[in-house]
């Protein structure tokens, strides 16, 4: 893929089902999910990364110090994932030709998934990871689609409505991960 793919990590939610903001959750070994997810993007091929924060921003910011990621705060984060996605896309630099959108609560999605999605797309297209045929994340969104995604990203739907009405390449990644989001510390 030619062009610059900018990693966009959405980590703004309150994590109500989790009982805490997912940006603050740590693995059993103590590693914060937010750091693991940012490193997944970096190792998968995103040279630049922007993390979108919202709930508990004061507690999440110190976790990102020294990582080299950019941080944007979605002040209207409580309105849902759509607000985080809009804030993140609006903050990306002009040098980015595509955004690789990833979620903080996908602990088994690793760099190989990110690399496969990036490697299967074009900078002006829409590419989505699939797990056993079911669409999931990460999602590659070419710059030409950003304004349309921002217009339709409302509530907890994110880019779903836009992706449903535009040709999107599904890249099977079920051999690499389950793609399941984690909504409970008991998982």
Topology record:
Elements: E1 5-10, H1 33-44, E2 48-53, H2 57-64, E3 70-73, H3 81-91, E4 98-103, H4 111-119, E5 126-131, E6 134-142, H5 146-152, H6 160-164, E7 169-172
Parallel strand pairs: 1-2, 1-4, 2-3, 5-7
Antiparallel strand pairs: 4-6, 5-6
Helix pairs in contact: 1-4, 3-5
The CATH class is Alpha Beta
How many strands, which pairing sense, and closed or not: the largest β-sheet?
Answer: 7 strands, mixed
Number of strands: 7
| Contiguous runs where pLDDT drops below 50 for at least 5 residues | none
| Tally of helical runs | 6
Proportion of residues in helical segments: 25-40%
Order of helices and strands: EHEHEHEHEEHHE
Mean pLDDT: 90
Write up this protein:
It is a single chain. This protein is of the alpha/beta class and 187 residues long. The protein has a single domain (5-172), classed as Spore Coat Polysaccharide Biosynthesis Protein SpsA, Chain A (Alpha-Beta Complex), CATH 3.90.550. It has six helices and seven strands. The chain has helices at 33-44, 57-64, 81-91, 111-119, 146-152, 160-164; strands spanning 5-10, 48-53, 70-73, 98-103, 126-131, 134-142, 169-172. It has a seven-stranded mixed β-sheet, sandwiched between helices. The protein is globular and about 40 Å long. The model has no long low-confidence stretch (mean pLDDT 90).
């Amino acid at each position: 893929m030619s062009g610059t793919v900018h990693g966009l990590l959405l980590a703004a939610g309150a994590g109500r089902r989790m009982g805490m903001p997912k940006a603050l959750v740590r693995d059993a070994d103590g590693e914060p999910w937010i750091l693991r997810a940012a490193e997944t993007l970096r190792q998968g091929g995103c040279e630049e990364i922007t993390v979108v924060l919202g709930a508990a921003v004061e507690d999440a910011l110190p976790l990102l110090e020294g990582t080299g990621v950019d941080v944007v705060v979605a002040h209207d984060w409580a309105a849902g994932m759509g607000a985080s996605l809009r804030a993140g896309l609006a903050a990306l630099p002009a040098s980015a030709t595509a955004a690789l959108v990833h979620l903080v609560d996908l602990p088994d999605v690793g760099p190989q998934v990110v690399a496969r999605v990036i490697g299967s797309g074009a900078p002006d297209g829409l590419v989505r990871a699939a797990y056993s045929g079911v669409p999931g994340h990460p999602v590659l969104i070419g710059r030409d689609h950003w304004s349309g995604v921002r217009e339709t990203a409302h509530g907890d739907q994110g880019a779903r409505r836009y992706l449903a009405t535009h040709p999107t390449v599904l890249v099977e990644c079920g051999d690499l991960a389950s793609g399941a989001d984690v909504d409970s510390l008991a998982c």
